[in-house]
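ok trying this again, last paste got cut off
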Amino acid sequence: MKFRMQATVGPASYIRQPDVLDNIGQHAQMFGQKALVIGGKTALSITSEKMLKSLEESGIVSTTEWYGGESSWTQINRLIQLVQAEKPQLLIAVGGGKAIDTVKAVAYATNLPVIAVPTIAATCAAATQISIIYNDEGIFTEISRLSKAPNLVLVDTTLICQAPVRFLIAGIGDTLAKWFESRASSQKSVPTALVRTAVKIANELYLILLESGKKAIESAQKGQASQALNDVIDAIILISGSVSGYGGDACRTAAAHAIYSGLTIFPEVHDTYHGEIVAFGILSQLALEGKDVSEMKELISFYHQVQLPTTLKDMGIVSLSKEQLQQFGSVAVEIEDMANMPFSVTPDMVINAVVQADRLGTEYK
């Protein structure tokens, strides 16, 4: 019997250094002489002058385009048409997770190389082969495999330090989930070398964040680079992505992200960042698993140190009716992430878990 294994662990290359965007042209010229730079409005306003100058100095013709505000098929298809009309040889994705995921999907469809330039350390989008897709209103719809891992990731730590610290905090929340979700989802999988390695990496990520998370935030607040900040940036963007790269669906996401996706049906949370909601989803997942309250309290204590939400109110949800809770529970169990849990999950189980996590977070305050 023949066995086949295929994995894309992460980006082909990853460079983190201060002011690396000053030299993006030197890195980009190996991919072509015509680039389409796609990103968020804020990200483009901050980076365009520096990037376009470097690209021009390297003989690369470039234009910029807003990604559209949501990583939705509407925007992806619009950008695919733009690429077909403009015929660039290279795509450059600039901004946060949604912008980068959008461009990764466009790169897959058009078979173009892509450089990812994350302007915030909030997700591992720059280092994965998947794209998280939402509808045009910002509600989660699917995890798409029609996405390309970047050929190169350029992380400008000067830029990361200038970003609001809340993005870094959200990144810590999103990365914490790697351990708790892979620990749960891997129980359904054959413990292959890749799965075992992914879970070990996820646990080490958790320990690194507990050790360096608060120090990294303090460095970012001062606008100063430090080893703690570098470690946390690498943990959020690169190492976190390698967990799903090694483990695949067996170690990617579980209840914490399913609960996040379910909560996006409520407009109140749309001002709360992805990783912040995921952090609360971790507490809810622990309740769902019936974990000891001491483990939840330890996590809540860390959340207080780094200012992650521990209650629904922290995310703008003051109250939910019985009907809203039922709607949320029904949505959450249908999210494919929930299927990675090692036991069957019902809407009532999810609702009870969220209520328990919210109660504990409120009491601990």
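PB: full thing came through this time. The chain has two domains: 14-162, 166-364.
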